[in-house]
Amino acid sequence: QKEVEQNSGPLSVPEGAIASLNCTYSDRGSQSFFWYRQYSGKSPELIMFIYSNGDKEDGRFTAQLNKASQYVSLLIRDSQPSDSATYLCAVNSPGYALNFGKGTSLLVTP
Amino acid sequence: EPEVTQTPSHQVTQMGQEVILRCVPISNHLYFYWYRQILGQKVEFLVSFYNNEISEKSEIFDDQFSVERPDGSNFTLKIRSTKLEDSAMYFCASREGSGGALVTDTQYFGPGTRLTVL
């Protein structure tokens, strides 16, 4: 069984702080790693993808990948109340379906 | 910006009835997917579709489910005889799949159809 594990949270951070979200996966064959944001009752919205070891930055978001440790993370700098949502980690191999974690609930408090 | 659309946004049906959920993928996309999310649970893969045939399906996608691309724009999911446990959000997704670096080929999700089986 290919698992994607996330801490369900809630993770609470004050406005302006850095939020750190973590994800581990069991399938060593996974090659693509995605972070989606999901607001309650809405569909997943892509934030970032990463497929090489190391860091990838996009605005306030940084994705980090360590394939040896089977670990991927998302950092959100200068967190805003509008960032409050559930963050979904998803992994796949090219051409295959996404395998999602259960998501981490993030609450950014003013 | 092109987006995936889904209809209806909410479908209420009686147990045992057939339902058809509709999706219009992004126009130049070649790969289509259905996922579902039971309330409070993770997003689960159901089926993928390429070149007018199923390319991958999960254990959830049993004989009660079918997919079809009836024309050049629509992609449908049919549940033949709904059960209470089919109540969930159903998401359609598509990706371009135009070749090259497939590893970066991102799936874009529609807004979902909330299916309620009574």
Structure, described:
The complex is a heterodimer of chains A (110) and B (118). Chain A is mostly beta strands and 110 residues long. In chain A, 0% of the residues lie in helices and 54% in strands. In chain A, strands 2, 4, 5, 9, 10 and 11 form a six-stranded mixed sheet that branches. A five-stranded antiparallel sheet of chain A has the order 1-3-8-7-6, with no helix packed on it. Chain A is globular, with a radius of gyration of 13 Å. The model of chain A has no long low-confidence stretch (mean pLDDT 94). The mean pLDDT of chain B is 92. In chain B, the strands form two sheets. In chain B, strands 2, 4, 5, 6, 9, 10 and 11 form a seven-stranded mixed sheet that branches. Chain B has a four-stranded antiparallel sheet with strand order 1-3-8-7, with no helix packed on it. Chain B is 0% helix and 48% strand. In chain B, strand 7 and strand 8 (75-79) form a beta hairpin. Chain B has 118 residues and is an all-beta fold. Chain A binds chain B through residues 31-32, 34, 36, 42-46, 49, 51, 88, 90, 94-103, and chain B through 31, 33, 35, 41-45, 48, 55-56, 58, 89, 91, 93, 97, 102-112.
The global form of chain A is: globular
Strand content of chain B: over 45%
Number of helices of chain A: 0
Main sheet: strands, sense, barrel of chain B: 7 strands, mixed
Distance between the termini of chain B: 37 Å
What is the number of helices of chain B? 0
Structural class of chain A: mainly beta
Rg calculated over all Cα atoms of chain B: 14 Å
* Proportion of residues in helical segments of chain A: under 10%
Task: Give the ordered list of helices and strands of chain B.
Answer: EEEEEEEEEEE
Helix/strand order of chain A: EEEEEEEEEEE
Structural category of chain B is mainly beta
Shape of chain B: globular
Structural topology:
The complex is a heterodimer of chains A (110) and B (118).
Chain A: E1 4-5, E2 11-14, E3 19-25, E4 32-38, E5 45-50, E6 54-58, E7 61-66, E8 71-76, E9 85-92, E10 99-100, E11 104-109
Chain B: E1 5-7, E2 10-13, E3 19-24, E4 31-37, E5 43-50, E6 53-57, E7 65-68, E8 75-79, E9 88-95, E10 108-109, E11 113-117
